[in-house]
Amino acid sequence: MKWWNKELLVMAAVLGLAAHWTWGSDKAIEIGKVPAKIREALKAKWPKADIIRAATDEVDGRTVYGFELSEGSGRAARRWFASFNPDGKVRETQETLKPADLPKSILQVLQKRYPGVRAPKVEKITESEGKLAKVTYELKFAMQVNIDASGKIIEEKDLDFEEAEEE
Description:
Layout: H1 3-23, E1 27-28, H2 36-45, E2 50-59, E3 62-71, E4 78-84, E5 90-97, H3 104-113, E6 121-127, E7 134-140, E8 143-148, E9 153-158, H4 161-166
Antiparallel strand pairs: 1-2, 2-3, 3-4, 4-5, 5-6, 6-7, 7-8, 8-9
Protein backbone atom coordinates (compact mmCIF):
# COMPACT_ATOMS: atom_id res chain seq x y z
CA MET A 1 0.00 0.00 0.00
CA LYS A 2 1.36 3.41 -0.92
CA TRP A 3 2.09 5.88 1.90
CA TRP A 4 -0.67 8.26 0.79
CA ASN A 5 -3.25 5.44 0.80
CA LYS A 6 -2.35 4.72 4.42
CA GLU A 7 -2.73 8.41 5.27
CA LEU A 8 -6.14 8.50 3.59
CA LEU A 9 -7.26 5.45 5.57
CA VAL A 10 -6.09 6.99 8.84
CA MET A 11 -7.77 10.31 7.99
CA ALA A 12 -11.04 8.55 7.08
CA ALA A 13 -10.96 6.63 10.36
CA VAL A 14 -10.34 9.81 12.36
CA LEU A 15 -13.15 11.66 10.57
CA GLY A 16 -15.49 8.73 11.14
CA LEU A 17 -14.72 8.72 14.87
CA ALA A 18 -15.13 12.49 15.04
CA ALA A 19 -18.54 12.24 13.37
CA HIS A 20 -19.57 9.51 15.80
CA TRP A 21 -18.42 11.50 18.84
CA THR A 22 -20.13 14.65 17.59
CA TRP A 23 -23.49 13.08 16.80
CA GLY A 24 -23.45 10.09 19.17
CA SER A 25 -26.67 8.12 18.86
CA ASP A 26 -28.35 10.57 16.50
CA LYS A 27 -29.64 9.24 13.21
CA ALA A 28 -29.04 11.23 10.04
CA ILE A 29 -32.20 12.34 8.24
CA GLU A 30 -32.79 13.95 4.87
CA ILE A 31 -34.02 17.52 5.22
CA GLY A 32 -37.10 16.67 3.12
CA LYS A 33 -38.12 14.12 5.77
CA VAL A 34 -38.01 16.67 8.59
CA PRO A 35 -41.59 17.72 9.48
CA ALA A 36 -42.68 20.96 7.77
CA LYS A 37 -43.32 22.62 11.16
CA ILE A 38 -39.66 22.10 12.12
CA ARG A 39 -38.31 23.25 8.72
CA GLU A 40 -40.49 26.39 8.84
CA ALA A 41 -39.39 27.19 12.41
CA LEU A 42 -35.75 26.76 11.39
CA LYS A 43 -36.10 29.06 8.35
CA ALA A 44 -38.01 31.65 10.40
CA LYS A 45 -35.35 31.69 13.10
CA TRP A 46 -32.29 31.64 10.79
CA PRO A 47 -33.40 32.54 7.23
CA LYS A 48 -29.85 32.76 5.83
CA ALA A 49 -28.54 29.56 7.42
CA ASP A 50 -27.37 26.64 5.33
CA ILE A 51 -28.12 23.20 6.72
CA ILE A 52 -24.95 21.11 6.79
CA ARG A 53 -26.47 18.08 8.50
CA ALA A 54 -29.80 17.05 9.98
CA ALA A 55 -30.41 14.27 12.49
CA THR A 56 -32.98 12.95 14.93
CA ASP A 57 -32.59 11.63 18.44
CA GLU A 58 -34.93 10.40 21.15
CA VAL A 59 -34.95 12.56 24.30
CA ASP A 60 -37.40 11.78 27.10
CA GLY A 61 -39.44 9.65 24.70
CA ARG A 62 -39.79 12.46 22.13
CA THR A 63 -38.11 12.90 18.77
CA VAL A 64 -35.77 15.86 18.74
CA TYR A 65 -34.47 17.27 15.44
CA GLY A 66 -30.87 18.51 15.38
CA PHE A 67 -29.15 20.59 12.73
CA GLU A 68 -25.58 21.60 12.08
CA LEU A 69 -25.87 25.06 10.51
CA SER A 70 -23.62 27.61 8.85
CA GLU A 71 -23.95 31.15 7.63
CA GLY A 72 -21.46 33.11 5.54
CA SER A 73 -18.21 31.85 4.12
CA GLY A 74 -14.48 31.81 4.75
CA ARG A 75 -13.09 33.08 8.04
CA ALA A 76 -16.25 35.07 8.72
CA ALA A 77 -18.44 31.95 8.52
CA ARG A 78 -20.54 31.20 11.55
CA ARG A 79 -21.26 27.55 12.41
CA TRP A 80 -23.53 26.29 15.15
CA PHE A 81 -25.81 23.48 16.23
CA ALA A 82 -29.53 23.85 16.93
CA SER A 83 -32.11 21.33 18.07
CA PHE A 84 -35.89 21.60 17.94
CA ASN A 85 -38.66 19.92 19.89
CA PRO A 86 -41.47 18.27 17.89
CA ASP A 87 -43.66 21.37 18.38
CA GLY A 88 -41.17 23.51 16.41
CA LYS A 89 -39.71 25.32 19.43
CA VAL A 90 -35.95 25.66 19.80
CA ARG A 91 -34.72 23.18 22.37
CA GLU A 92 -31.05 24.18 22.43
CA THR A 93 -28.33 25.95 20.46
CA GLN A 94 -24.59 25.50 20.80
CA GLU A 95 -22.04 27.80 19.27
CA THR A 96 -18.26 27.89 19.58
CA LEU A 97 -16.97 31.31 20.60
CA LYS A 98 -13.54 32.87 20.82
CA PRO A 99 -12.61 33.74 24.41
CA ALA A 100 -12.54 37.42 23.39
CA ASP A 101 -16.24 37.15 22.44
CA LEU A 102 -17.28 36.20 25.97
CA PRO A 103 -19.27 38.78 27.96
CA LYS A 104 -17.12 40.82 30.35
CA SER A 105 -18.76 39.27 33.41
CA ILE A 106 -17.76 35.76 32.27
CA LEU A 107 -14.21 36.86 31.40
CA GLN A 108 -13.84 38.42 34.85
CA VAL A 109 -14.94 35.21 36.56
CA LEU A 110 -12.55 33.20 34.40
CA GLN A 111 -9.59 35.53 35.06
CA LYS A 112 -10.29 35.72 38.80
CA ARG A 113 -10.85 31.99 39.36
CA TYR A 114 -8.33 30.67 36.79
CA PRO A 115 -5.72 33.42 36.25
CA GLY A 116 -3.34 31.23 34.20
CA VAL A 117 -5.86 30.18 31.57
CA ARG A 118 -5.24 31.89 28.24
CA ALA A 119 -7.25 30.20 25.47
CA PRO A 120 -9.99 27.88 26.65
CA LYS A 121 -12.38 26.23 24.23
CA VAL A 122 -15.68 28.10 24.66
CA GLU A 123 -19.22 26.96 23.86
CA LYS A 124 -22.25 29.18 24.31
CA ILE A 125 -25.24 26.99 25.10
CA THR A 126 -28.74 28.41 25.00
CA GLU A 127 -31.59 26.23 26.21
CA SER A 128 -35.09 27.10 24.97
CA GLU A 129 -35.86 30.50 23.43
CA GLY A 130 -37.51 33.84 24.14
CA LYS A 131 -38.27 34.64 27.78
CA LEU A 132 -37.53 31.04 28.75
CA ALA A 133 -34.02 31.10 27.29
CA LYS A 134 -31.24 30.07 29.65
CA VAL A 135 -27.66 30.85 28.54
CA THR A 136 -24.59 29.10 29.91
CA TYR A 137 -20.98 29.15 28.81
CA GLU A 138 -18.95 25.96 28.81
CA LEU A 139 -15.20 26.56 29.05
CA LYS A 140 -12.72 23.74 28.60
CA PHE A 141 -9.03 23.79 29.37
CA ALA A 142 -7.59 21.33 31.93
CA MET A 143 -11.08 21.52 33.42
CA GLN A 144 -14.63 21.94 32.23
CA VAL A 145 -16.34 24.92 33.80
CA ASN A 146 -19.96 25.89 33.18
CA ILE A 147 -20.90 29.48 34.01
CA ASP A 148 -24.38 30.98 33.71
CA ALA A 149 -25.03 34.34 32.04
CA SER A 150 -24.83 36.16 35.40
CA GLY A 151 -21.29 34.87 36.01
CA LYS A 152 -22.19 32.19 38.55
CA ILE A 153 -20.15 28.99 38.28
CA ILE A 154 -22.62 26.12 37.88
CA GLU A 155 -20.22 23.21 37.51
CA GLU A 156 -16.49 22.56 37.67
CA LYS A 157 -14.91 19.25 36.86
CA ASP A 158 -11.43 18.02 36.06
CA LEU A 159 -11.07 16.57 32.59
CA ASP A 160 -9.28 13.28 32.30
CA PHE A 161 -6.07 13.20 30.28
CA GLU A 162 -7.75 12.19 26.99
CA GLU A 163 -10.46 14.87 27.27
CA ALA A 164 -7.88 17.55 28.06
CA GLU A 165 -5.73 16.42 25.08
CA GLU A 166 -8.74 16.92 22.75
CA GLU A 167 -9.04 20.51 23.90
